[in-house]
Design a protein that fits this description.
Length: 778
C-alpha cells in the first residue's frame, strides 16, 4: 500500500526503535500513515545518522537489533501505520574493525571473496589499497603505529595482518609494506586515492552493487524485511553515485516483487525530469521544495537584495558576486583539488582507451585530463543519463568546454571524452568503466561544488540556497507552480515531497522568515546598517569579512533570536565549506577566532535585541509564508514527508543542528493545520493518491497574483496567501475573487460552511492566511 504521508525519524543510540515505538500514538493522531526511518543497518558505533554502514547483513544493535525493528513494525501496524526505511546502496564505512567484509578484504586482498564488494582500483595501487588515516606523513606517524596480535593499530583504527605475510615481530616498515593496504597521510586522499568514495568523504568507500552477487549479499537483509512485511517502503540514498542507477532500481524492483513504494534521493537540476523508465514512485521531493519555496519569494525584492548584497560585500563576480560565475569557480576548485584523484582515474581510463584505438592515439594525456575537467565543470545536471545525456553533454557542455582550449585542434579531446561518456566509442571494460565513473564523478562534483561550496559563497537571499534550488533564480510564479503540480499529478502522482530534511541547510520555517526579506529589501538595508553600527561599538563586533556578516545577520533573523552556540557552529561550517578564508583541510585559526568573536559580540551580543525586534516585526509575514508552504506541501501531488518536529514551528540550521533526537514538544497552529491536512489525506486517499486529479482554480482581481488555489479531484480545495507583505502594501485583496467549484464546502480549519462559486478571497482568508476546504461527507 502506498503511503498517504510519511514521518521522518532520525534514529540514533539516544533514539532507538523502542523510543520510536513510544511516539506512535502521537504520530497516529497526527494522521501519519508510515514512519520513515533513517538507516537501520549496522553502522559505526555511536553514529547519529546511520549512513556509515559497516555490515548490511544485520540490523543495528545499538538501535535494538532486528527484534527491536520487528517489534516496532508490529506496534506501528497496531496503530494503522507501516515502515519506510532508508537504504544506502552506494557506500559503506571505511572502518574495518567494525566491518567484517572490509576486514576480510584487507586481510586477503583482491583474492578475497569480498573484494568484489568494494570499488577499488587494485592496479592503480600496485595491488594495495591506500588507507588515508594517518594524521601526518608516514615517517612522522610511524612511532604511533603498533602491532597487537594479528592486527595493526593506529589510534582508534585497527587493521588486519595478512595471514601469509611476515611474522608480527618483523621490522615494522617491512611488515606494513607487505600488507594488502598502505597506511597513508590523510592528505593523500585528494590525489592518490585508489577507491571510489562518497563525494569527497574518504571515510566512506564505494560499493559495487552493479555486481549481482554484491547486490544480493548487501540487500539480503533489507529484502527479507520487505518480504516479511516489516518494511513497506524504501528511500534509496544517493542513486547518482551508482554505476548504473536504472539497472540497480530495476533489480531492486524485481527483488521486491514491485510491491514496495520506492523513492530515490535524486536531485533534479537544470530543468531535467526524472527518467520515466525508472521503476520507482518518484523522488524524495527536493523538486517540490524548490517550487514551494519559489512561490514565497518576491522576484523584484530578491533582485534588490542582490544589488544591496554586492554593494555591502564588494565581492568579485566569481567569489560570490554572481551566481553562475560563483558556481563555475567553485566547480573548478573542486574538480582540480578535492576530486583530483577521481579526475586522474578518469584520465587513466581515457588514455588506455585512446592507446587501443589507432585514430585516437595522438591525444595527449594533458588534453584528455583538461577535457575531463572542462566537461564535468559545465554539466548543468548532477549526472548525464541515457535519456537526456546527449543534450546536456553535446549541446550544453561540449561546445563551451572546447572554447577553453588554447589550440583548436587539441580541443578534439573534448569530443573523445564526450563520446566515451555517452558510450559511443565501442565496448570494453575500460569503455564501460569510464562511462560509469564519469557519471559518478559528475554527481560528486555537482554536490560538492554547488551544495557544499557555492551555496556558502553566494548569499544574497539564504532561503534560496537549498538542495535543488537555484539561487540565481529564486522566485517562481503561480503558473510555474501549477504547471509542475499538473505534471507530477500526471506522471509521478505518488512521488515524495519535502520541505525539511536531515540534509537541508535551513529548516522550512527558517527559510520562510528569511524569504520575507525579499518583500522588504529596504527594511533589511536599514536593519543591516543599524546592527552593523551597534556591533562595531563592541570589542570583536566587526565581522572578519562582509559576506559572513551578511549571512550571519540573515541567519539570526531566520532564527528569530540568535542562539550563540548554534549560530556560531553553522557559520563556521559555512565558512569552511566556502573555502574562501578558511577550510576543513586548511583551517585559519585567526579567521575562525574572529568569526567566533563576531558572533558573540554581534548577533548574540548587544544587537540581539534589535534582531529580535526586527524578527517580531516580520512575524505576521513569516507566519503567512510558513503556513502557506506547509499547506501546499501537505496537499500538492505526491506523498508528503514530514521531518521530525516540523509539524510545529521548527527552527533549525544545517546538520548536526537539525539532527537532534525527536522531541514531541507542544503543538501550535501549524500542528493543527498539519493534523487537519494529514487526516484528510488518510480519510480520502483516492483524492490525493495516484488517481487524484489536480486543477488550478481561477483567481481574478487586482491582487490575483497573491493567491494560489487549486482543487484535488473535486473534493478538496486549497488556497494560500503568497507575498503577504507586498499584498498589504498594495492595499489588500481589494475585491479579488476565487472561483470555487459549485456546491457546499466545509472549511476544515475554521469549522464553517462555505458556498461554491465566486468567493471573495478576503472572505476565504477571514481566519488566517490559508484555507483548506473539503466536500462534506455524511
Amino acid at each position: 500500500m502506498n503511503p498517504t504521508s510519511t514521518y521522518r525519524l532520525q534514529l540514533q543510540p539516544d533514539f532507538p526503535f523502542a523510543r520510536a515505538a513510544a511516539v506512535l500514538p502521537y504520530l497516529a493522531g497526527l494522521g501519519i500513515s508510515h514512519l520513515h526511518l533513517s538507516p537501520v543497518l549496522e553502522a559505526v558505533p555511536g553514529s547519529t545518522h546511520g549512513y556509515d554502514v559497516t555490515d548490511p547483513t544485520r540490523v543495528r544493535a545499538e538501535l535494538g537489533g532486528e527484534d527491536g525493528l520487528r517489534a516496532l513494525a508490529r506496534a506501528a501496524r497496531e496503530h494503522g501505520m507501516g515502515l519506510v526505511v532508508d537504504v544506502v546502496p552506494n557506500h559503506m564505512a571505511l572502518c574495518p574493525r567494525h566491518s567484517p567484509a572490509l576486514w576480510e578484504v584487507l586481510r586477503s586482498g583482491p583474492a578475497s571473496p569480498y573484494a568484489r564488494w568494494f570499488d577499488v582500483d587494485w592496479d592503480a595501487g600496485g595491488g594495495r589499497v591506500l588507507l588515508p588515516v594517518l594524521a601526518g606523513p608516514f615517517g612522522e606517524e610511524l612511532a604511533a603505529v603498533r602491532v597487537n596480535g594479528d592486527a595493526v593499530e593506529y589510534g582508534e583504527h585497527r587493521f588486519p595482518l595478512r595471514a601469509d605475510g611476515p611474522a608480527p615481530d618483523a621490522d615494522l616498515v617491512e611488515l606494513l609494506d607487505a600488507q594488502h593496504y598502505r597506511l597513508g597521510w590523510w592528505r593523500l586522499a585528494r590525489t592518490e586515492l585508489t577507491y571510489r568514495r562518497f563525494f569527497t568523504v574518504a571515510e566512506l568507500i564505494g560499493v559495487r552493487v552493479e555486481d549481482p552477487a554484491v547486490f544480493d549479499a548487501t540487500h539480503a537483509k533489507i529484502l527479507e524485511l520487505v518480504r516479511d512485511g516489516v518494511v513497506e517502503g524504501l528511500r534509496v540514498d544517493h542513486p547518482d553515485g551508482l554505476a548504473d542507477p536504472e539497472a540497480y532500481l530495476a533489480r531492486l524492483d524485481e527483488a521486491t516483487g514491485g510491491a514496495c513504494w520506492t523513492v530515490v534521493e535524486k536531485v533534479l537540476a537544470g530543468g531535467e525530469h526524472l527518467p520515466p523508465s525508472w521503476p520507482v514512485a518518484g523522488t524524495t521531493g527536493y523538486d517540490a521544495l524548490r517550487y514551494v519555496d519559489g512561490l514565497f519569494t518576491d522576484p523584484q525584492g530578491a533582485a534588490e537584495l542582490t544589488t544591496s548584497y554586492r554593494r555591502f560585500t564588494d565581492v568579485a563576480g566569481d567569489r560570490g558576486g554572481h551566481w553562475d560565475a560563483t558556481a563555475r569557480r567553485a566547480a573548478h576548485r573542486v574538480v582540480t583539488h578535492a576530486l583530483a584523484s577521481e579526475t586522474a582515474a578518469l584520465t587513466r581510463l581515457a588514455v588506455r582507451v585512446c592507446a587501443g584505438e589507432p585514430a585516437l592515439r595522438d591525444h595527449a594525456p594533458w588534453a584528455l585530463r583538461a577535457a575531463v575537467r572542462e566537461l564535468l565543470v559545465r554539466l548543468p545536471v548532477y549526472r548525464p543519463y541515457r535519456v537526456g545525456g546527449e543534450e546536456v553533454l553535446t549541446l550544453r557542455a561540449a561546445a563551451v568546454a572546447k572554447a577553453t582550449f588554447p589550440v583548436l585542434a587539441e580541443s578534439s579531446a573534448v569530443d573523445v571524452v564526450r563520446d566515451l561518456a555517452l558510450g559511443r566509442l565501442g565496448a570494453g571494460a575500460d569503455h564501460d568503466a569510464f562511462r560509469a565513473r564519469f557519471a559518478q564523478t559528475a554527481s560528486a562534483l555537482r554536490a560538492k561544488s554547488v551544495e557544499d561550496t557555492a551555496f556558502y559563497r553566494y548569499v544574497p537571499l539564504l532561503s534560496a540556497n537549498e538542495v535543488g534550488g537555484d539561487p540565481g533564480e529564486p522566485a517562481l510564479t503561480p503558473a510555474a507552480f501549477h504547471e509542475h503540480c499538473g505534471r507530477i499529478a500526471r506522471d509521478w502522482p505518488t512521488t515524495g515531497t519535502v520541505l525539511t530534511t536531515h540534509d537541508t541547510k535551513r529548516s522550512a520555517d527558517v527559510r520562510a522568515r528569511i524569504a520575507v526579506l525579499s518583500q522588504c529589501p529596504e527594511r533589511w538595508d536599514a536593519f543591516l546598517a543599524q546592527v552593523t553600527e551597534e556591533a562595531a561599538r563592541t570589542d570583536g563586533g566587526r565581522a572578519p569579512d562582509a559576506q559572513v556578516a551578511w549571512a550571519a545577520w540573515q541567519t539570526a533573523v531566520g532564527f528569530g533570536f540568535p542562539y550563540e552556540d548554534r549560530l556560531r557552529a553553522a557559520l563556521l561550517k559555512g565558512a569552511r565549506e566556502a573555502a574562501l578564508h578558511t577550510s576543513w583541510t586548511e583551517p585559519d585559526e585567526t579567521y575562525e577566532r574572529a568569526l567566533a568573536a563576531f558572533v558573540a559580540a554581534g548577533p548574540a551580543g548587544p544587537p540581539l535585541y534589535t534582531v529580535a525586534q526586527f524578527a517580531r516585526e516580520l512575524e505576521p509575514w513569516a507566519r503567512a509564508n510558513a503556513l502557506g508552504a506547509a499547506l501546499l506541501h501537505l496537499t500538492m501531488p505526491g506523498v508528503p514527508d514530514v521531518y521530525q518536529g516540523t509539524e510545529r514551528e521548527y527552527l533549525a540550521l544545517v546538520d548536526p543542528d537539525n539532527r537532534a533526537p525527536f522531541d514531541e514538544g507542544a503543538g501550535d497552529e501549524k500542528t493543527a493545520l498539519t493534523r487537519a491536512a494529514l487526516r484528510l489525506r488518510r480519510e480520502r486517499p483516492e483524492v490525493f493518491g495516484a488517481s487524484g486529479a489536480y486543477a488550478p482554480l481561477e483567481v481574478s482581481g487586482p491582487a490575483a497574483e497573491h493567491c494560489v488555489a487549486y482543487c484535488r479531484k473535486g473534493e478538496v480545495v486549497v488556497a494560500v496567501t503568497r507575498l503577504a507583505l507586498r499584498l498589504e502594501r498594495a492595499g489588500g485583496w481589494r475585491g479579488t475573487e476565487v472561483e470555487l467549484p459549485e456546491g457546499p464546502w466545509a472549511d476544515v480549519l475554521a469549522g464553517r460552511a462555505v458556498r461554491g462559486g465566486r468567493v471573495a478571497v478576503a472572505e476565504l482568508f477571514l481566519e488566517g492566511p490559508v484555507a483548506l476546504l473539503a466536500r462534506p461527507r455524511d
